[in-house]
Structures are given as C-alpha cells and as structure tokens.
Amino acid sequence: MHLTSASVFIDPARCSACGACIRVCPSDILSLENSIAHAAPDTNIARCLQCGHCMAACPENAITIPALDPNLHHFTTFALDHAWLPPGSGLPTHNLARLICSRRSCRHYKQTPVEKEKLTDLIKLAVFAPSGTNSQAWTFTCLTTRAEVLGLGQSIKTFFERLNKKAENVLLRKSLALFGAKTLDHYYTNYYESVKNAMKQMETENRDRLFHGAPAVILIGSSPGSTCPKEDALLAAGNILLAAHTMGLGTCLIGFAVAAMESDRSIQKELGIPESETIHAAVALGYPDETFQRITGRKQPSIRFR
Ligand SMILES: Cc1cc2nc3c(=O)[nH]c(=O)nc-3n(C[C@H](O)[C@H](O)[C@H](O)COP(=O)(O)O)c2cc1C
User: Fold this and answer.
1) Mutation choice for ligand 1 from 105, 106, 197, 218, CB with most ligand atoms inside 8 A
2) pLDDT of res. 69
3) I need a surface site. Which of 128, 199, 201, 305 has the fewest CB within 10 A?
4) How is domain 2-68 classified at the architecture level of CATH?
C-alpha cells in the first residue's frame, strides 16, 4: 500500500487512473501522477477533510482512509444493506415522507429503560449527518437511567429558580435593558410565568415538565475544533429523532436544558462533561406512552421561487 498523504492511502496496484476520486474530492487535493491517483499533503490552502468521498467513489476500492471507522456503519439492533443507495432508487419517497410527518415530540414515556444497544446505534446514525468542514467534533453523553435524568432535571430546575428570582427584580431587569442587555427583560416577558408554573407543577404534582418523564437523554455537544458546532449538533439530533421513531422510541428536543447548561457550566461538570465541551442539543427519549391518530398539517411556510 502506497502512502500518498497523512490521511488518504491509495493502492497503486488497484488504481485504474479513472479520475473518479479526483472529481468528487471537495478539497481538490487529488491528482493523477504517473497514471496513479495521488493525494497532496495538507497545506493551509487545501487539506483533506477525511470525508471519504474518494473512497466511496473509487470503482476499484483502491482507497483507504484510516480515520474512518468501518464499525460505525455496522449496527447491533438492525442489519444494514451496505450497498450505496443511489439518488432516486430503492427507498420510496412516500415511506420516508411518512416517517418525517409521523415523528412528533413525545411528552409521555413508559418507564422501560432504553437499551444501550439502541442508544449506540442511534449515535452511529447521528454521525452520518453532515458537519461543517467534516469536523465531526460532536460528543454524545447518554443518561441511561431515570435517576440520572432526574438528577440533571434537578440541576436545571435550580438554575431556573435562580433565574426567575433575578427576573422578578424589576429594577435589575430595567437597568440591564437600559444598558442594552435586554435578555433578562425578554425572558421575563416570554418565559418567566410559564417556567414558574412548570416548576410549581414539578413540586406539587410531581410532574416532570422538563424531560416529560423520559428514562433516557442524549446530550449532544461539541469539542474544540468544530467549525459549526450548533448546526452540527442539531443535524445529528435530526438523525436521532427520525431513526428513534423507526425503533419504536419517542423523542423530544429539550431547549430549556440546553439554555440552562449554556449559562451554568457547572451543570455539565456534575455529569463529568469536560469544560472544553459545549452542549447544543438535549434529546429526551424513551418508549412512548402516547399515541396519535393522524398526521396533522403545519403552518403555511413562506416560500419564494425566483
Ligand atoms: C430547538 C428546539 C428546542 C425545543 N425545546 C423543547 C423543550 O424544551 N420542551 C419541549 O417540550 N419541547 C421542545 N421542543 C419541541 C417543540 O416544541 C416541537 O418540535 C414543536 O412543537 C413541533 O412539534 P413536533 O416536534 O411534534 O412536530 C423543542 C424543539 C426544538 C427544535
């Protein structure tokens, strides 16, 4: 095997110089040299993203990218047909559309634990989402017991109790707003009452208004090096939401958890998440204890064709 760059190995005995890899390389680092594909070493102008497009396109299977773990597309809870699905073939759109339209945020869960194998397979599917410059710098922290979820819920509740206390202070709110810091005033106008009410329900009715009784949560974060951390995390979350539905699981994104963890970094410390990481998405999940009768519509979106 011939080493042509730190990231890409091209087997000269297999390469047929067809140029397929060169055509799909997003970084333009591949070229033909002596009738063999060659990857230029990384420079500040162009570097290999390790995206695997060259490897996927090579008809001779001559390319290897050691950074790409082949185990990530081997799943435990289902068998994957590893043949690449060309656009417009194999999977009827109406099946995918039915999945997309049927996924709903779940706010009632059974207490049955979610199998670690399913959580692992969901994370493997999450990382097939696109990521800015293919940085894949996401992290996944799984809370797998109700006790863990409740523990995080308590820390988040404490955060919002403190925030509500601050927001009750008119003088503080108004003087901050006067200096351009309008976040607290905005929070008071839009969220204070509903958060107060939710916290009261949590105490008096023992109702989990934060994670909705979910027995598991996946926190999706980013480690340093990510170019678009928030976008990457939410795209990964999107894969999880859809795939979870096919596995019989309900899910709900919990923005309130993310807001609390962004503002109070000690919450992630309690979970052993390093300070260098930032949490961008929290997905509550579990077996649903609610059913829907139909697919409903959406608000009319603003669409422009030009
Ligand atoms: C970024 C984001 C944050 C959200 N945060 C919460 C949350 O904290 N609690 C909750 O119950 N639902 C939350 N949701 C779910 C939305 O309320 C839900 O997606 C929306 O009402 C549409 O319903 P559907 O997901 O069933 O289609 C969140 C959704 C998104 C996209």
Assistant:
1) 105
2) 92
3) 305
4) 2-Layer Sandwich (3.30)
Report how far ligand 1's centroid is from the alpha carbon of 99 (Å): 17
Q: Where are the beta strands (DSSP E) in 26-94?
A: 30-33, 36-39, 63-64
Residue 139, token pair as written in the block? 């992290």
Query: What pTM did the predictor assign?
Result: 0.94
> Cα–Cα distance between 109 and 135 in angstroms, integer?
34
CATH 3.40.109.10 in the chain, residue ranges: 71-296
| CA distances (Å), origin 50, targets 5, 29, 151, 159 | 11, 11, 38, 40
**∠ CA(88), CA(130), CA(37), 5° rounding?**
80
Helix (H), strand (E) at residue 120: helix 116-126
Report the separation in Å between the CA atom of 254 and the middle of ligand 1, taken as the mean of its atom positions: 7
User: Does the C-beta of 230 come closer than 6 Å to ligand 1?
Assistant: no
Predicted confidence pLDDT, tens digits, the chain (306 residues): 454 566 899 999 999 999 999 999 999 999 999 999 999 888 888 889 999 999 999 999 999 999 999 889 999 999 999 999 999 998 999 999 999 999 999 999 999 999 999 999 999 999 999 999 999 999 999 999 999 999 999 999 999 999 999 999 999 999 999 999 999 999 999 999 999 999 999 999 989 999 999 999 999 999 998 999 999 999 999 999 999 999 999 999 999 999 999 999 999 999 999 999 999 999 999 999 999 999 999 999 999 999
Q: Which residues of the chain form CATH 3.30.70.20?
A: 2-68
18-31 pLDDT, tens digit per residue, is: 999 999 999 999 99
Cβ–ligand 1 distance for 256 under 6 Å, the answer: yes
